[in-house]
Input
Amino acid sequence: MILLFLNDLLKIKLIDVIDILLVAILLYQFYNLIKGTGAINIFLGIISFYIVWKGVRAMHMELLSEILGAFISVGFIALIVVFQPEIRKFLFLLGTPLR
Output
């Protein structure tokens, strides 16, 4: 069992490492963008809600899973509304040429 895990672990390609680094950079930049604002508390609340939903799904609680899933399905629109100032700032930074 351990040998199978190590065998799969050793199959990491360069593109996998680049992918992980790019995601880490994006998450770090997102954190820098929202730190010091009230948005960090909202973001942590959303992450907590998602973790609870995944836990409920893992325990096969059908009704609660459906109710939480309905909130998750409209969550993307809610994220745009809640994080509108941060998204605007991020897009402005992307459009600003480097000096």
In short: DSSP finds six helices and no strands in the chain. The chain has a mean pLDDT of 81.
